[in-house]
């Protein structure tokens, strides 16, 4: 852990690496460079009819960077419906520092003042590297993802990295690509400027859906 700093972590992302821990109680982290990488293709992302209807109903207040620390904690918590996590104290420390430096962001879903879903990740140039998401109410993480994708499209991003593919992520539109393909996309994103805050902090559902539907 002593050798890993936030600056080294940023450089690792730019090279295609990301850190993980064995479990929440383990010391230190290790680097991962999977042979096959999960991404959300921003240009081809589609919202299902049921999710589109849910977004229009505005069941949640959706915000950005209102409570990064709690989102990270909930992603690591067994209260969010997971039995184990790779988010240990080292991960928490590093990503909270990246957030303070303006490189890590969260999207939150609130219901009556309660945090019920969200996600967080790292933003470098035109790449957003998704780390984890959670929900305690139905569709909260899906809606957080939809709002993130609208924000990335508005800001001119070209890469949304999901690291691995799970059945849940695949059901949301993630695909798996080779390491070589990922490196090409990563290189393009690292040589392009983007603006995470180009979209209003709390956009209207209609704006979100219009942005998602836009093609390049």
Task: Name the overall outline.
Answer: globular
What CATH architecture do you see? 3-Layer(aba) Sandwich
Rounded to an integer, what's the Rg over CA atoms? 16 Å
> What percent strand?
15-25%
Oligomer: single chain
List the keywords.
24% strand; 216 residues; globular; Aminopeptidase; alpha+beta
Structure, explained:
This protein is an alpha+beta fold and 216 residues long. Helices cover 38% and strands 24% of the residues. It has 8 helices and 9 strands. The strands form 2 sheets. A 7-stranded mixed β-sheet has the order 4-5-6-7-8-3-9, sandwiched between helices.
How is the secondary structure organized here?
Layout lengths: L5 H10 L2 E3 L9 E3 L3 E4 L9 H8 L4 E4 L3 H8 L13 H12 L3 E8 L2 E11 L2 E9 L4 H16 L3 E5 L3 H6 L2 E4 H12 L14 H9 L3
Parallel strand pairs: 7-8
Antiparallel strand pairs: 1-2, 3-8, 3-9, 4-5, 5-6, 6-7
Helix pairs in contact: 5-8
Please sum up the structure shown.
The chain has 216 residues and is α+β, with helices and mostly antiparallel strands. Helices cover 38% and strands 24% of the residues. It has helices at residues 6-15, 49-56, 68-75, 89-100, 140-155, 167-172, 179-190, 205-213; strands at 18-20, 30-32, 36-39, 61-64, 104-111, 114-124, 127-135, 159-163, 175-178.
